[in-house]
Amino acid sequence: MNKIVSKEHFSANVVKLVVEAPLIARSRKAGHFVIVKVGEKGERIPLTIAGADVQKGTIDLVIQAVGGSSKKLCALNEGDFITDLVGPLGQATHIEKVGTVVCAGGGVGVAPLLPIVEAFHQVGNRVIVVLAARTKELVILEKQMQANADEVIIMTDDGSYGNKGLVTNGVEAVINREKVDLCVTIGPAVMMKFVAALTKKYTIPTLASLNTIMVDGTGMCGACRITVGGQTKFVCVDGPEFDAHQVDFDEMLMRLGAYKEQEKEKAL
Amino acid sequence: MTQQEIIAARRAEPWREELRKAKKAKERMDLPRVKMNELDGEYRSHNQEEVNLGLTKEQAMLEAQRCLDCANPTCMTGCPVSINIPTFIKYIEKGDILAAADTLKETSALPAVCGRVCPQEKQCEKQCIYTAKFGKEAVAIGYLERFAADYERESGTVSIPVIEKKNGMKIAVIGSGPAGLSFAGEMAKKGFDVTVFEALHEIGGVLKYGIPEFRLPNKIVDVEIDGLRKMGVTFITNCIVGKTISYGDLHADGYKGIFVASGAGLPNFMNIPGENLVGVMSSNEYLTRVNLMDAANPESDTPVLIGKKVAVIGGGNTAMDSVRTARRLGAERAMIVYRRSEGEMPARLEEVKHAKEEGVEFLTLHNPVEYLGDERGRVKQMRLQKMELGEPDASGRRSPVPISGVIETIDVDEVIVSVGVSPNPLVPRAFDGLEVTRRGTIVVSEDSMRSALPDVYAGGDIVRGGATVILAMGDGRKAAAAMAEQLLK
């Protein structure tokens, strides 16, 4: 049982929970994720850690209410408890000084991107963040990104804030302007697929942090398996970050839909 | 006293001598082996109720008469935890069932579990004088073990083994499956302060996530775990040693010994085309969803695919558990696809028999070579290569050889791959200095289960790479004896 210390609404469907988890706060690194379960009959779902405070013994989780389980989690309030929380899981991001790093985040993927931005910036990289959202209200963590990056570029689909266009338009503008040594992307699978296609064209090494279906999160079930460079990998233990140019995003998108019908039935 | 002397002394107790003389060996041998009472195959193939109903006291006492109380009980050599088999059986014959249960608990932390899931026909019952010498059916040691453990539990007077004076030494156990539980029980008995760290949200490891309710009800496992709690064992869930806390943290917290029993977590796949289609999954995933997450229950948030035409690839116990589960969840066609013949199947005989009674089809000498999907990426067919038996391979079994050009295509909407597991690398990776094999198992000394790190012992599937509940328990027991001896020196 892990207590929710505070709750903040980023937008109508996106909340940030600060959760008591002193051991995880101490051992987690950028790129790690946790598995949470709400209620005795709850589902185990993976969430990438968006930040931590070692002194206070808390971790930050940013959740978008999309399916039944994420809605349950978003409905919890300050003082409530998360039934089960385990981690940190996965391999941490490999952080080193490479030069200029473009971090492209979309939707709720912006949250787990924040610790990666911080870490790359801390070791002396020039970090340019491209934040993408459908519309102005859905842009999150802009200030925190600004505090940790050399530049933040906002892209909205409808042009209500920042530049009008997709995340790929923002990334391409940077590539056309200056030398980029590494790209990191987190967001919806479709978005990462297009970022990967773009940077491949420019032969810029690119990491994508994947969020697939998982049960245990420790390598036991294989629900999260994907194909990377023709080989099957488990996102939970081999990832969650992979060379985006090698990931079979179409297969991943297909597998993400595995339980669509069951989820609808459960929700009834 | 040596083991032999203990066996002889207990056999020489007056009540035992009297009991032995009460009936001639010939009369005992003429008794037919008891049949397990079980639910009807058709009825049970639609629900999760436990298939085996256990023996009545009358049945058990009669079966116990068949045991000849041999002077040299070879059955015990077949038991990885050396249960004093004749002693517990003779207590049953005498009608003192609680004493029989106590005898089991002297060496086994989980008798009600072992009575249900051990492959007795390959262990104690294989070594029974009836099978080994007379060519007759063995004494039903497994059924009797289960009977004694169940009788004690249902009697409401569950005894706690004698615990030695607390010695103040802290011991950490990584993983709460059979190896971890067995080790924890032994160490608690010896007076150690034992904490078990479990990665999942439930205690029990494979006993909970793997073995289905109809073969091993969760409440049976929970009673055994409660027994360990009463012996002073502490359980911590949602904690992964090597992730949440480190080897160094355990030292800093004063743990003097560590037993790694993290199991063989990683499911193997066959790396054939179409294996990542939607609807193809590991038996670990399928069984974890159904058993641990209760996904077939509408109240559970966890989904599971309900196939109508389900193929399970493999011939082990996990394959049988998966195919029988699929049948229960509504599969009209539930198939075992196995590349060898039935004679080579590693599953317990009882599981194969039960699966057949429940309407499972057996496609032996078939091996999948490809899965085909529909336009949405869902599996719709499997292509099976027909096989024949060739020369014996390294395992001593005749190896399956493809019959060139003979391929069958069968419609399926769900495929469960159950072709073994590999050790979970999470823990071995976290311990610097641990010696690990190419396969990822931890190297230990065979007699003590001690690893290359002096305070780290290991047992169960993380050492064996995929074995049975009872072998894991045997490892736990052996490691506990060796670690206690080292620490109390």
Please, could you describe this protein's structure?
The complex is a heterodimer of chains A (268) and B (489). Chain A has 268 residues and is an alpha/beta fold. Chain A is built from nine helices and 17 strands. In chain A, the strands form four sheets. Chain A has a seven-stranded mixed sheet with strand order 12-11-10-9-13-14-17, with helices on both faces. In chain A, strands 5-6-2-1-7 form a five-stranded antiparallel sheet. In chain A, a hairpin with a 4-residue loop joins β5 and β6. Chain A starts with a strand and ends with a helix. The mean pLDDT of chain A is 93. Chain B has three domains: 153 residues, Alpha-helical ferredoxin (Fumarate Reductase Iron-sulfur Protein, Chain B, domain 2, Orthogonal Bundle), CATH 1.10.1060.10; 161 residues, FAD/NAD(P)-binding domain, CATH 3.50.50.60; 151 residues, FAD/NAD(P)-binding domain (3-Layer(bba) Sandwich). In chain B, 37% of the residues lie in helices and 18% in strands. Chain B is built from 21 helices and 17 strands. Chain B is globular. Chains A and B meet through α1, α2, β8, β15 and α8 of A and β7 and α16 of B.
